């Protein structure tokens, strides 16, 4: 058949008068295919929290004021060349980079370069309720709400074209960390104004313009996202002409396509399978420590899950070691609490419930459900670093629950629909997880269990406990690390007592790519970046790493 | 010899019996009949003969190959799936979903469809022609498409799949029975009976119906294979029977996640599905050939 | 013939009209707000929702509502997707192109091979060749398409590496989507690497086409064989033999044209079966066609898209069926007589 195709190709040459074959291979050699696991929610990371959206947009289309270098463990300049804290940490001054051009695309040609107005536009969009773009495309900015940034920043002031001041309500050491996350991207104010003029403001998140290394070309839902190189990028890279995301939700298909060469890079590979199937010379698997936690959250507003005793019973009912063995093939660590081992506030003490169906039945009877009940388990349709197969995990839990007389149905929707419905709290319980955006332990509790998170729809347990929130505030206002650690242990114990969620596992984040691809960056905090990615010809591969 | 007939009398076997005799000469049809029979017996006895519960998970035997494989174990004849569930038990238990429920759906659809079809076939004039046109329309649209729409309304669950498949099959029965009766009702033998003063009920049940049983039987096999395929297809798309029920289509869809490492999880349910459909199709096909032969011989 | 054609076309119009009523009623049957299901505008967006309420006359009787719905439908306003907020109608054309490309190629292949194999089987009646062809065709007919597709992918794409696993073309070939049919789009585009792209597209295309062709192919073999057997018993064939015509001439001039009549009659049905399989095959091969679009819209509860997909697929199937009938009646006048005699 291959010969048939080749034959037809030569026929085509004849009929169409196509150009000679030597020039034809160019797009294949200068492009890179990333098989992503799902559709992005939009092309603006400010609007979402999903890792899929971040991976597809943040580091590709946009830049931030500052970046976090995980190797040196410090903040490094990006669109801001330097910054300083003034007024005892109540004011941060950023000096902006000059000669940074916004992308020039068929639908927008910038007339000016990046300046302070763009910073104001990007931040005020979510900061100010009355901003013309605030309500465009939903008006939800979950990261900024749940991280508290929206209440921390009082106002932003333009000093001159290349200096901006951020006025804070109170000093906060996590401020810079939050600015360096993938969510705090810089949009173009000029583009915003032009769209307003055209009465099509919603396009700003669909046909995005940023300063990043790649510019958006097209998006066909469920099929591809296409980017091309930003010719005028202000720093090193990109080295590839074309970056294509092929949306491939099925993990097995992704792996097979990597082996056949239809994908160059894939996220969340089936590591064990890959090791058995592919030779090391062809495919490389990289793993990064990833601060994450997979958990099973109960909707604490839905009866009977409003009773801690019921939640505790279910926590006893599931066989978590078996889950680690079956779902993660042992490539994960059984969670001993919400915080992962890598966090400095972590303690060795086990803060979870052991597998004990007898005890579970007993607790259920005490709570008034001796004959069990029916519930649903929502399982993510996609793989995440913390959970390679939520649906299979749900099946394991389903059979564990059947043993204590609880009848569970598994519910799943397409990823974005799933998240939308979760935010509306339509679930009884959900298998999901969390990847920290920065190294502070606060990031493991506030965005997923605080009252603010419950309001913004990112608290999967729909749990709002004033006492818990008070502990969180205590922890963040304490400066002594040892004292903070003690408070975080209290918080862990509080979670253990109330069981809004059952921690399941902490795992590594894996990524697999073909051996001729170099330089794909996978930082521990945040999404991946193709800025320095390149394809090396096989003969160059032995010559050494081109990685800078 | 009290029973001896005085006159030579050639008894014409009934149409159904003729078909049966013809089929007996076709070894494939006989084999298919046996296979289908065995499958039915397995299905009926499935709660008794599964070695393990289909949902029981063996944590020590995740993705074990079938017993004929070098690494296989005899206690799991067909191997286990990625959750350590015995595949043989799941396939046997799955026959209830993939064969039993289609049979039930076909039975319900046939009862309703044949009743309406018979009524329509016996009535005359505008209403029957209108009905025919309507059915023409509905029937040219694939049953799977309609079932998908019904599932979109009701949501994916076993009973909704049953409703969808039954609803989709009814028009096929109405159509074929209606047409068959329509073809028969003006033939001489029917007219003769009518002139004899038979009631319409007698005409329908005793005069016409024996002559269209073959059509009905053929339609039954056709509907059954459609029902099995559609239920499996819905399961495969994740819109049918929900896990952990071991429906074969659902099992096939699940197996895709590990098809390369444990191909038996895909091959075995597929073979079960294939054998079932094949035996039904062979039966239907031999009935059809038998009818054709009969028509040719007349 | 004109009378007959008009009758058929009139029936087609009536059928399509019934289809629109069905789709209109679906909006009330689907869970949620009927107006949202119809237009894709959520009640949360009050301004747009009220405009839609007016435009679709949702404050008036259900008949008025249907009338307005029909008006919008005919003017190409099919609502917008609940997920992407894109107008449904604008998305349909390229999807339809992709589906048609697959189905037409599969239909052609099954027709060519089905008729020739069926003919061959009929001429070798009850010889081993016939038995083998019929046995294989009956078995192949019983293989569920989703299983077959997976087995072939495993064999040809993964084990042998002859073809890619899924999608229309290597996505690095940047081909503008115009018609949706990838081969047409490549020919229409002006990229420098057209030949390579065309070869790559063909390499992606052949496996789904074969998978889809299998079922109509097996049916056509059987229909052709039966038809040929019928024809061979006819007196005019005997007469031709008696006149001493060569066997080849009898087959090609007298047998085949007459045997084709029941084959043509069945083409509409075969197309319906093909469309049913294409829904599943597009999902497996990640083909950007109407079928996969429809199934994904069910996953996402995107009712405006679901309606658009249903209407397009159903209308396509009805149209093809009527066209086949018209062709049949035009090409075989004796059928027309039969049809008139019936009434």
Automatic annotation (TrEMBL), chain A:
Claim: Signal is one of the keywords in the record: yes
GO biological process: dipeptide transport
GO molecular function annotation: peptide transmembrane transporter activity
UniProt domain Solute-binding protein family: residue ranges: 75-453
Listed Pfam families: SBP_bac_5 (PF00496)
ATP-binding as UniProt keyword: no
Domain of life: Bacteria
Keywords from the named record: Signal
GO cellular component: ATP-binding cassette (ABC) transporter complex; outer membrane-bounded periplasmic space
InterPro entries, A to Z: Peptide/Ni-bd, SBP_5, SBP_5_dom
Recorded family membership: Belongs to the bacterial solute-binding protein 5 family.
Protein name: Peptide ABC transporter substrate-binding protein
Organism: Pseudidiomarina salinarum
TrEMBL record, chain B:
GO biological-process terms attached to the record: transmembrane transport
InterPro entries (alphabetical): BP-dependent_transpt_permease, MetI-like, MetI-like_sf, OppC_N
Subcellular localization, as worded in the UniProt entry: Cell inner membrane; Cell membrane
PROSITE patterns: ABC_TM1 (PS50928)
A cellular component annotation (GO) from this entry: plasma membrane
Pfam families: BPD_transp_1, OppC_N
Sequence ranges assigned to domain ABC transmembrane type-1 in this UniProt record: 95-284
Family to which the UniProt record says this protein belongs: Belongs to the binding-protein-dependent transport system permease family. OppBC subfamily.
Gene3D superfamilies in the record: MetI-like (1.10.3720.10)
Main subcellular localisation: membrane
Membrane-crossing residue ranges in chain numbering: 28-49, 99-122, 134-155, 215-241, 261-284
Species: Pseudidiomarina salinarum
Membrane topology of this protein: Multi-pass membrane protein
UniProtKB keywords: Cell inner membrane, Cell membrane, Membrane, Transmembrane, Transmembrane helix, Transport
Domain of life: Bacteria
The name this protein goes by in its record: Peptide ABC transporter permease
From TrEMBL, chain C:
Subcellular locations according to the entry: Cell membrane
Domain ABC transmembrane type-1: 96-328
Entry GO MF terms: dipeptide transmembrane transporter activity
Ranges that cross the membrane: 9-30, 102-123, 135-158, 205-224, 267-285, 305-327
Bilayer topology: Multi-pass membrane protein
InterPro entries: BPD_transp_1_N, MetI-like, MetI-like_sf
GO cellular component, one term: plasma membrane
Keywords (A to Z) from UniProt: Cell membrane, Membrane, Transmembrane, Transmembrane helix, Transport
One Pfam family, short name: BPD_transp_1_N
Primary residence: membrane
Family of the protein in this entry: Belongs to the binding-protein-dependent transport system permease family. OppBC subfamily.
Annotated PANTHER family: DIPEPTIDE TRANSPORT SYSTEM PERMEASE PROTEIN DPPB-RELATED
Protein name in the entry: Peptide ABC transporter permease
Source organism per UniProt: Pseudidiomarina salinarum
Origin organism lineage: Bacteria, Pseudomonadati, Pseudomonadota, Gammaproteobacteria, Alteromonadales
